[in-house]
Every structure is written in structure tokens, then in C-alpha cells.
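Fig. S4 source data, part A: sequence.
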Amino acid sequence: MAADAHAPARELSETADGETLPQSAGHPDEGSVEPPRGQGAESAAEGSAGEAKSDGAAADDESDIGPEDIEQATADDTEETAATKQPMSHVRLATVIGVVAVIALTALVGWLGFRAYQLHQLRDQRELFLQVGRQGALNLTTIDWQHADTDVQRILDSSTGTFYDDFSKRKQPFIDVVKKAQSKSVGTITQAGLESDSGDEAQVLVAVSMKTSNLGAADQEPRAWRMRITVQKMGDQAKVANVAFVP
């Protein structure tokens, strides 16, 4: 009976050993079908082989790039950059150049006009100095005893400064001498020129030939005089400021 009691226990043990233990949660359920191990290995091998071929092809393509291809790519980039920067049209460029030329020409014409105006003003002022110097010499050397007062007053009207003050003091004695001697003198300008000028003042050299007659000597030989006349500009007119006889 003891042997019979142990028999079922052995059968249960053998049955338990023959049965498959249930799989863990991480494995597929009993009802799922697993692919054959041989087919999975072949697919993995084919994938690896395909990737290897792709890498090899890429490497072959990279190895095929030469200097010519690099230069071509650089040229393409340059062309794209040039195409991006749109060049200035010929019409716009010509317009810009024309505007600049007009501005420069206007400035040049304005400057030349101003310089011409300055030169014209300077020339006119020098002519005025020379004219006043010549007229001052004629006034001093052309005096008639019959209208001495008028001639002397003309000298004063055309003078200023020191010369005016000195001649005003000697005016009446000079008139008395001319009338008493019945003197008559006529001056003629032989040469005249502008010696120097500075601002509103100038030095004029005048050469005069003066013919004189009086009560005691009717006909006398002409006398030559040289004068340095200082002319000073006063507003729009100029007058004699000083007279000096030079040898």
C-alpha cells in the first residue's frame, strides 16, 4: 500500500516536469506565433547588407567629386550671388552721372562768375584811382588868374585828408599871388600809371608838362613835373589825399 501511495505522486511529478511553465509578462502570449528564427536572421542580414551597399555607394559618390565639380559649384554660387544683387540699370546710372555733372558744373560756373565779378570790381577801382590821380594833377597845374577862385575851389573839392587841410590854409594867399602876377598855367598829362594799390588807397605816378605865362613873361618854355598822388576811396568816389613832387 505504501508503494501504491507513492505512485500517484510520481505521476504528478512527471506530469509537472513534462508541462511547460507559463511565460513571463515580457514574452509573447501562448496563443501568438513567433517567426522562425532562421527567417529573422536572414532579414537582419539583408538589412545590414543593404545599408552597407548604400554607405558604399555614398562613399563612391563622394570619391567621384573632383576639382572640376568644386569649381563648378563655386561658379554656380557666384552666379546665384550675382543674380541676387541686381545691377544698376544703364538709365539710372546715366541719370546719376548727369545729376553729379550738373551740380559740379553749376558750382564751377558760380565760382567763375564770382571771380569774374571780383576781377571786374578790382579793375573798375583801379581805373577810378588812375582817373582821380590824373584829374588831380590837371587841377593843380591848370589855373587861370581870371577865375582863380573857381580853380582853387575845384582843387579843394577833389581832395581830402592832409592835403585838403594844408591847401585850405594856403588857399587865399595862393589866389592873391596868382591874380597879382596875372599867371596862367595849363597842364598836360604825358604819362600816368598806378604805382601801387591796397584796399581803398592807391599811389598814382603822373608826369605833367605845364606851360606857364604871366605878366612879366608872356611865353615860357613848358616845364615837366612828376607827381606821386595818393588817392583814397571814400564810398563810391575817390579823392586826392596827398601830393608829392618827385624828381
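Fig. S4 source data, part B ends here. The longest strand covers residues 184-198.
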